[in-house]
Amino acid sequence: MGLPRVAGTQFTGMYPEPEAKDTTRAVAVTENAGGFLWVWDSWERMRSQEPAGVPGDGSKTLLVIAHPDDEAMFFAPTLLGLARLRHRLSLLCFSAGNYYNQGEMRKKELLQSCDVLGIPRSSIMIIDNRDFPDDPGVQWDTERVAGTLLQHVEANGINLVVTFDAGGVSGHRNHVALYAAVRTLHSEGKLPKGCSVLTLQSVNVLCKYISLLDLPFSLLHTRDVLFVLTSKEVAQAKRAMSCHRSQLLWFHRLYLLFSRYMRINSLHFL
């Protein structure tokens, strides 16, 4: 005795005929689309609100990086997100990126990138001395970094410092040294009253290279602040990264396409 017809489809054994397969595919596509729209709606709702704990309109924010290109390669979503909040952005770079004797070129590239990202040239300081060499094999002295950073924060009335977390995104020693310095200042209570610190969350390799597909995980995972770029802002971030022509090797071009850090930044307060 054959199987009964259900909703106009004849089943043979356990396998549906093409009409049922098409229906199954349609349901799956609808469910996936619905899930993506839920994520997108959640993101839009979050973007319409000022992140809790982040200083408001007119706040002076300092991005602290180790090398020219860090600002575009890792922090573009944060910079553009804070620009939406009308923060007054400034940048402190602890080296000229002279590992391959390209320091002068890389300084110029950094200035061009900051033009794209909205950081005034008058608010950019690049440190170029032997205390902080661009070298993954050299451990920068935490006290020296902390002292230089504190002096800059106090002199410029900074309300918010943004830098790497303990993982340094890529694990680069120079990145980690910046976190160690700001952590020391924070834990010892040396930062000026009212000055907050945000650190950029390091993620595993899989999450790092799945671009916008990491958004659902970023929404679910614990974080204090989340910045997600629009398509227009992603193009702006890519233009900033493209200013670093000396660094655009083939793997950096792949990075532009696939890295979550070109689209998403999740950060934590110290």
UniProtKB/TrEMBL annotation:
Membrane topology: Single-pass membrane protein
Keywords: Endoplasmic reticulum, GPI-anchor biosynthesis, Hydrolase, Membrane, Transmembrane, Transmembrane helix
Primary location class: endoplasmic reticulum
Pathway(s) where this gene product acts: Glycolipid biosynthesis; glycosylphosphatidylinositol-anchor biosynthesis
A Pfam family matched in the record: PIG-L
Membrane spanning residue stretches: none
Catalytic activity reported: a 6-(N-acetyl-alpha-D-glucosaminyl)-1-(1,2-diacyl-sn-glycero-3-phospho)-1D-myo-inositol + H2O = a 6-(alpha-D-glucosaminyl)-1-(1,2-diacyl-sn-glycero-3-phospho)-1D-myo-inositol + acetate
GO biological process per UniProt: GPI anchor biosynthetic process
Record bears the keyword Amino-acid biosynthesis: no
InterPro entries xref list: GlcNAc_PI_deacetylase-related (IPR003737), LmbE-like_dom_sf (IPR024078)
E.C. code: 3.5.1.89
Cellular localization per UniProt: Endoplasmic reticulum membrane
MF terms (GO), sorted A to Z: N-acetylglucosaminylphosphatidylinositol deacetylase activity
CC annotations in GO: endoplasmic reticulum membrane
Similarity-based family: Belongs to the PIGL family.
Function: Catalyzes the second step of glycosylphosphatidylinositol (GPI) biosynthesis, which is the de-N-acetylation of N-acetylglucosaminyl-phosphatidylinositol.
Protein name as it appears in the record: N-acetylglucosaminyl-phosphatidylinositol de-N-acetylase
Organism: Mustela putorius furo (European domestic ferret)
